[in-house]
Recover the amino acids of this structure.
């Protein structure tokens, strides 16, 4: 089993190396995006005359966006697009004739990409961010807690994309649905603004939704020292939603695989 | 010693597709109301295949060959019927089942498109849990027979169709499957490569007792490889028996495509029917029961200025037609 999983990871890594240029471009654009946020908020803070907005100092907010970029890269998943493409052109058939379940196969190929991305994109970006934008590193304990949260977030985000991808068994073309999902998740996860910028009632609801546990809560582990109870609460919610999505995916997969007609072979 | 490897009973599969008339207005209409049509791909198929057989599975386009193969390889769920392959119901326990089989789809590739074929081979080594030594030995043997040593390190997207097909077959056979489905495996191969490919299959069959089910449009494949042929048409099996019988009973005609220098005037020959008359060419159907193909060619060359002769087998459609005719008589 482990061998099969490692092999999937390896092939993902190998094909990521082929597309390395794609990752280098990301390394150029991400600091630029951060720079835009930097000047945007600098002018907002300057204009408002306040040093703290919604509990964020200017420096803390820039850190939020920097860590947001890192988290977004690591939890990134486009498995919904794979499903759409493979179902439209019938390539899914060849993924069904090999002796491994589709979920771990796709997940691990994806993590192969992500490992490469981590090395050539994420870590260099973190280095740039700490040097140029003066981003502070948390203590060792919080870094470990951050990594645990990140890994669970990664699985959770993959599952959301996987579920949307299964929609392609019925709808074939799901480009619109994918974009809607990306926007909604980005917004509700705190990818555009930290959730503490929103009304209290909104934040209360958000605590029971899966989305903030993909980004906002994880970024907070980096930014603020968390108590053990707070950490466990985040992990619990992540595991809870992973369990829920697991049930839904298993159920939908059973229906979906019966729906598949393997076009064009 | 005979042992059933595949057992299929009353297999049925239908597809629901929506269709619409051409044109913009009809496209707009289809937003609100869709017309569904139900196509029966398989209408009750029965077959059993023994261990060690090489069976040719032939029929015209859309007859249900690929659907059958896809059901047998665990990709599709049938609507009705019982299937037992190697003791498995293919679409249940898919992962355990596919460990035992190999599948080659001529139209799709199992190989990783942007990576060299060797990377897919190594992936399969781990997915199928092939011991390292066995893997090395087998790969070396297959590469030599298929003559692909030079191409396995090139990205698959840069390979020719034939090279890809050969690599694909290697990927599907590395784990020594007991049963192999080949869906139009010789597409894109040149004459020499086809010969090598067929020999490879025969050798694998002889050495390891591997069972093959092959769909193809190339009657040469069938003649070289298969002792037994199953013909399918409109989702039903119309013939299941030895190839010899088909050849003797139904492949009784050949098509001659002849090109002349100038217009052929006064072609007349017993047992021949002119199918098409071109400016400088004739398409002739020869009834082999009445006339030997040799005699026709002798006659043509003797009487006319022949530039080129192309001899073709009886088209599969015609064989099917004859089978139907015989059934009705």
């Amino acid at each position: 089993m482990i061998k099969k999983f490692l092999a999937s990871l390896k092939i993902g890594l190998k094909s990521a190396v082929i597309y390395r240029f794609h990752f280098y471009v990301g390394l150029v654009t991400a600091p630029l995006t951060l720079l835009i946020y930097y000047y945007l908020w600098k002018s907002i803070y300057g204009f408002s005359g306040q040093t703290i907005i919604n509990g964020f100092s200017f420096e803390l907010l820039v850190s939020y966006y920097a860590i947001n970029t890192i988290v977004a890269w690591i939890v990134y998943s486009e498995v919904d697009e794979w499903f759409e493409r493979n179902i439209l052109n019938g390539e899914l058939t060849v993924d069904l004739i090999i002796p491994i379940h589709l979920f771990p196969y796709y997940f691990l190929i994806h993590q192969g990409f992500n490992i490469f991305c981590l090395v050539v994109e994420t870590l260099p970006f973190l280095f740039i961010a700490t040097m140029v934008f003066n981003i502070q590193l948390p203590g060792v304990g919080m870094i470990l807690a951050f990594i645990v949260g990140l890994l669970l977030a990664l699985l959770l985000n993959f599952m959301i994309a996987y579920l949307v991808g299964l929609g392609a068994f019925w709808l074939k073309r799901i480009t619109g649905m994918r974009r809607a999902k990306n926007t909604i998740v980005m917004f509700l996860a705190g990818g555009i603004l930290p959730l503490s910028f929103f009304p209290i009632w909104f934040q209360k609801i958000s605590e029971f939704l899966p989305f903030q546990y993909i980004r906002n809560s994880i970024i907070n582990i980096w930014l603020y020292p968390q108590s053990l109870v707070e950490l466990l609460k985040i992990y619990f919610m992540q595991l809870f939603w992973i369990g829920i999505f697991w049930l839904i995916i298993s159920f939908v997969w059973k229906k979906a695989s019966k729906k598949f007609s393997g076009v064009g072979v | 010693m005979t042992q059933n490897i595949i057992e299929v009973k009353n297999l049925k599969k239908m597809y629901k597709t929506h269709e619409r008339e051409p044109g913009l207005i009809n496209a707009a209409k289809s937003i609100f109301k869709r017309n569904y049509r139900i196509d029966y791909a398989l209408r009750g198929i029965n077959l059993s295949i023994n261990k060690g057989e090489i069976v040719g599975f032939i029929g015209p386009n859309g007859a249900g060959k690929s659907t059958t193969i896809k059901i047998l390889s665990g990709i599709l769920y049938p609507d009705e019927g019982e299937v037992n392959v190697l003791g498995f119901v293919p679409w249940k326990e898919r992962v355990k089942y596919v460990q035992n089989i190999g599948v080659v789809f001529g139209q799709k590739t199992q190989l990783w498109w942007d990576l060299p074929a060797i990377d897919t081979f190594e992936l399969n080594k781990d997915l199928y849990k092939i011991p390292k030594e066995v893997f090395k030995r087998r790969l070396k043997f297959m590469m030599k027979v298929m003559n692909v040593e030079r191409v396995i390190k090139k990205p698959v997207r840069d390979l020719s169709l034939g090279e890809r097909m050969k690599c694909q077959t290697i990927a599907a056979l590395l784990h020594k499957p007991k049963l192999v489905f080949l869906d139009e495996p010789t597409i894109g191969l040149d004459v020499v490569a086809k010969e090598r490919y067929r020999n490879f299959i025969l050798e694998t069959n002889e050495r390891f007792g591997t069972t093959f089910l092959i769909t193809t449009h190339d009657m040469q494949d069938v003649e070289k490889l298969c002792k037994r042929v199953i013909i399918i048409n409109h989702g039903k099996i119309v013939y299941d028996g030895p190839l010899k019988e088909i050849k003797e009973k139904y492949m009784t005609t050949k098509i001659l495509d002849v090109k002349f220098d100038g217009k052929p005037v006064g072609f007349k020959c017993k047992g021949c029917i002119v199918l098409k008359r071109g400016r400088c060419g004739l398409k002739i159907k020869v009834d082999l029961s009445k006339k030997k193909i040799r005699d026709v060619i002798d006659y043509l060359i003797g009487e006319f200025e022949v530039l080129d002769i192309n001899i073709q087998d009886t088209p599969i459609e015609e064989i099917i037609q004859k089978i139907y005719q015989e059934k009705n008589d």
Notes: The two ends of chain B are 37 Å apart (CA to CA). Chain B touches chain A at residues 15, 66, 70, 73-77, 91, 94-96, 98-99, 101, 103, 105, 107-110, 112, 114-115, 119-120, 122-129, 155, 183 (CB under 8 Å). Chain B has eleven helices and 13 strands.
